[in-house]
Amino acid sequence: MTLMQQGAQEIIEKRKQYILPCITHYYEDPPEFVRGEMQYLYDNQGKKYLDCFAGVVTVNSGHCHPEIASAIIRQVQTLQHTTTLYLTRPMVDLAEKLAEITPGSLQRSFICNSGTEATEGACLLAKIHTGAHEFIALRHSFHGRSIIAMTLTGQSSWRIGGPYVFGVNFVSSAYCYRCPFGQSYPGCDLECAKDVENIIRTSTSTRVAAMIAEPIQGNGGVITPPPPYFKKVQEILKRYGALLISDEVQTGFGRTGGKWFGIEQWGVEPDILTMAKGFGNGWPIGGFIAKPEIADSIKGGQHFSTYGGNPVSSVAALANIRVIEKSNLAQNAATVGAYFKDKLLELQQKYSLIGDVRGMGLMLGMELVKDRKTKEPAAKEMARVMEICKDDGVLIGKGGLDGNVIRIKPPLCITKGDVDSAAAVMDKAFAQVQK
Ligand SMILES: Cc1ncc(COP(=O)(O)O)c(C=O)c1O
Fold first, then answer.
1. 195, 247, 294, 412: which is deepest, by most CB within 10 A?
2. 3-61+330-433 is classed CATH 3.90.1150.10
């Protein structure tokens, strides 16, 4: 056993003894990571890895970014925690910035600690504002791990320990590669969007509080809707007085390229927008922002979070936003993302295992199939590609209902040179797996 494996083995043993077994890890032969620097991670032997998964789509500005780290250290040594029952400045400065960068008239924020808590809070606000209790969610979605968040999640592997909350109905996802209506865009008349109205009319009282949706479904396998999808959906929701909650936990903060938030790619202004992950560049923080007329429905004492809006998380998120802005990371995501996607499309020409390449900016996916005609998911092959890439110093993520979608979502500071290296490593891995 190498020193590297020995370190990893000790951690695995301690996990077995002291951590709930629900906490699993990637790879048969996992490295122990000890250091991060921008788009790179280093293991206990100093081996460098290009991180194309960014701690599950979280480290947008780069690992241990020096400006964000300094802001955190300064704040942690000055004032860490008081709760929002006392007045401190960082949370309001952060909220002011969020009002500036989020689309349309979104203005008032609630800051919490995670994406799940953001989903909970956004749903609570939607219920209080509309007086309605029913929700619509998309199949293949992921919204977190509380009871309501799991209820809104459209993947069996994440719907654990039911029964769930009443009043949630699912609509078909805009999953063009496996269109649930057997159609193909653009000749399809957006049956998937029309499904929203069908479900409202057939499966609800028509009094729906909100539909929650990811602008690009992340965990579900980078499912990217056709451009007019969300406009059509919002038009339907408006007719029924239902709100649109855009879950930007993965698509936020420049990830999809050129814009701050994913929903902006579709030219739609949501009523409520949730965020986490890339919000704090790895520092735990979540939140949601709403239009003032909606936000003002919730009264004093109706919601609270002990750590929500604490000074350290708030300065971390604000420093992160400033880095994204100053370093033009959203633009870099657009440029380098387009370059990366071209490389993936080239690989698709070479390997029939790659059934579909999709996504935008630095939120890219490749769906692996055993056969392009039957589209049978190639999950085992996916696991092998991941393992080989890791051995060659490139970390990629996994997603999709069948665990057969490669997720490429690196820190937004990645360069074209990094992409060339990643593509060469993936090429080699596919050549090995698709013999
Ligand atoms: C789209 C989306 N929403 C919500 C969540 C839940 O976030 P968290 O893990 O911070 O609770 C996640 C990720 O896990 C996510 O990808």
1. 247
2. yes
